[in-house]
Amino acid sequence: LRDSLAAPGSSRSFIARCVHVKTNLTIFQHITRMGRLRFVLLGQAFYTFSPQAQREIRELVKNELVPRHGDDVDKARIDRSKIPTVVDEMQEVERILQEYYSFVVFNAIEGLETITERRYGSFVQTGALGDLLVQNAEGVKAILVYDRDRTKKMSQGQRYHQSREGGSIHTDNVNVPYIWEYMILTCLQPGRIGGESILCSSLAVHNYLRDNAPEVLETLRQPFWWEYRGFNEKFYRAPIVFYNQRGEPMIRYLRDYMESAYIRKNISMSHEQRYALDYLDSLLELSEMQFRHQLSAGQSVFCFDTQVLHGRTSFVDSGETTGQYDFENPRNRLYQRTWLTKDGWLAEKLNSMPK
């Protein structure tokens, strides 16, 4: 069924291409036990937390987290006993991601008005399900995504989350060789124009390669060099396409980071490797492979990172870009990114990784 839905020209291929359908799910609307998950246009999945879950998030954020920690979101520790409905609903969302779709868009939590409140709200959602992971050598878990310097590019060493560049459709599981499960990307403040989120199904990409370019798929299954960007100066080797225990395809990919590793090691990719990357980039840029959505303030994308590639269109801000975001006058695009695992050993390993 998944193969037939993903076939080019299929009248119902939108579902498999965009959201990594895992079973025969033909309903347009699914009511969970507590919350509400709405499917429209054969695959755009939007989840609204129940009134009770939203109340738990709101009360924890406003009455405890903001007064105690202020803007220092990373210091927050989530007491799951205070948000039982949120925990239940996040487990339900996880089941939906495992069995049906690999991403959902969380609608905004009512009553969280400020950027700081929205940051904590996203932190609570992810903390309700598992352990948050550090994302750099400084130990930051809640990374702010905004343009620091309009003149710098990733090819010059700038990290993707610090630029305004579009394209570069990727997964976040590239900085370390260990695979964690989930990513949540929350819109705290939209930009002036652009910055539309792009999502691509790893399953659809894999199946297209299998059917149309098997030699490219075989090359992508071979090890490539990567760097521990943001953590240390070391390197590791790993394939771009690999498989989980259920046999489902997974993808590790961010071309700019990979090419930086080859430049730093002073080695060249083979002709087959570079062709495979060019083919993969061209495939990811096909409109029929993409699901696009402009997140509004408070909305989040929650996904299996290795099963959904993501990117954005380029954007322009309303104000000047600087190294420090102007929280007093939030005019520029600002997102927050967190990584999540339910594997306690992996969380301990990554959160204590030598710098």
The helix-and-strand class reads: alpha+beta
Q: What is the makeup of the main sheet?
A: 9 strands, mixed
**Which series of helices and strands comes N to C?**
HHEEEHHEHEEEEEEHHEEEEHHEEEEEH
What percent of residues adopt helix (DSSP H or I)? Answer: 25-40%
Point out poorly predicted stretches: 1-44
Basic shape: globular
Mean pLDDT, as a whole number?
84
Count of runs of 4 or more consecutive helical residues: 10
How many β-strands, per DSSP? 19
**First and last CA, distance:** 46 Å
| Gyration radius over CA | 20 Å
Fraction of residues in β-strands? 15-25%
In short:
By secondary structure, the protein is α+β, with helices and mostly antiparallel strands. It is built from 10 helices and 19 strands. A hairpin with a 3-residue loop joins strand 2 (36-40) and strand 3.
Features:
355 residues, alpha+beta, 9-stranded mixed sheet, 4-stranded antiparallel sheet, disordered N terminus
Helix and strand arrangement:
Layout: H1 2-6, H2 13-19, E1 29-31, E2 36-40, E3 44-48, H3 51-69, H4 84-99, E4 103-106, H5 115-127, E5 131-132, E6 143-145, E7 167-170, E8 182-189, E9 193-194, E10 197-201, H6 202-212, H7 214-220, E11 223-227, E12 235-239, E13 241-243, E14 249-251, H8 255-265, H9 271-284, E15 291-293, E16 300-304, E17 308-312, E18 315-316, E19 334-341, H10 344-351
Parallel strand pairs: 3-4
Antiparallel strand pairs: 1-2, 2-3, 4-16, 5-19, 6-19, 7-17, 8-16, 8-19, 9-18, 10-15, 10-17, 11-12, 13-14
Helix pairs in contact: 3-4, 3-5, 6-7, 7-9
